[in-house]
Specification:
With 248 residues, the protein is mainly α. Among the domains are: 60 residues, no CATH class; 92 residues, no CATH class. The chain has 12 helices and no strands. Helix content is 50%, strand content 0%.
Length: 248
């Protein structure tokens, strides 16, 4: 993360933030985490909309994270059916009346995700990537406060020993946010860098997510036809510890 000077002329994103934060430098900036969210979709038109709340992959992510509780699943299944998302397991799940623990419905939930073409269970890395991408897209499209989202991901979701480069950038920006930064008119620039990190996170694709899993590149490698052919004698001499190639 590099903090540039605050006088970048012709930078539309920075100019937008300078206007937004014009008065905030003289105010208590603790409201930064609770201020209304701002859309940056115009500045980053390539970032897709967030997944819908009933997207199968996002539901699997929430279930794995524990954001969905076992008692929530029957009513969620009813919602899916009402939206036209219909599988045998969803119907059975919608009819479950006595759900006391995860073990009661985990096999059924597993079958439901398989029927919805979700590779389940998800690895921890996949869960973190999918969830972070969703949060980032919510930020870009004005559905989530950027600074609150950064704190949520960097301090509440990602383990310290698993931080990706983008999450480390979020952590550094959070650490840089103090009264000194505000008094030196750095808040717009810090926020610009924050939004750019979210744009990178939001641009991640399903292919990148899949490639975090073991075996994701199966079938894409190749071995030359002459792989087992003898080496040229001068190279073989190096492996054999000989000073000079053999004389034929």
């Amino acid at each position: 993360m590099v903090l540039a000077d605050n006088n970048d002329e012709g930078d539309p994103l920075l100019e937008k933030l300078l206007n937004i934060f014009k008065l905030k430098e003289q105010q208590d900036f603790r409201g930064l985490y609770t201020d209304a969210s701002i859309s940056f979709a115009e500045e980053f038109p390539e970032i897709p909309e967030p997944e819908s709340k009933h997207s199968p992959i996002f539901l699997a992510t929430q279930w794995t994270l524990g954001d969905l509780h076992c008692e929530d699943m029957p009513s969620l299944a009813v919602d899916l059916l009402e939206e036209g998302i219909d599988t045998p397991s969803i119907r059975r799940l919608a009819g479950e009346m006595n759900v006391a623990c995860i073990a009661d419905i985990e096999p059924l939930v597993r079958r439901m995700f398989h029927e919805l073409d979700v590779i389940y269970p998800l690895s921890e890395t996949e869960v973190l990537i999918v969830y972070s991408r969703q949060v980032a897209r919510e930020v870009i499209h004005g559905k989530r406060n950027a600074w609150a989202a950064a704190s949520h991901l960097a301090k509440g979701i990602w383990p310290r020993n698993q931080e990706s480069p983008d999450i480390r950038d979020l952590s550094e920006l959070l650490d840089a946010l103090d009264w000194n930064a505000v008094n030196h008119n750095m808040l717009p620039k810090l926020t610009e860098e924050l939004i750019e990190v979210f744009a990178r996170l939001g641009a991640r694709t399903d292919r990148e997510k899949r490639c975090a899993s073991l075996g994701c590149l199966q079938g894409q490698g190749w071995i030359a036809d002459d792989f087992n052919a003898p080496l040229p004698d001068d190279l073989q001499a190096l492996f054999d510890g000989r000073d000079e190639p053999s004389v034929g």
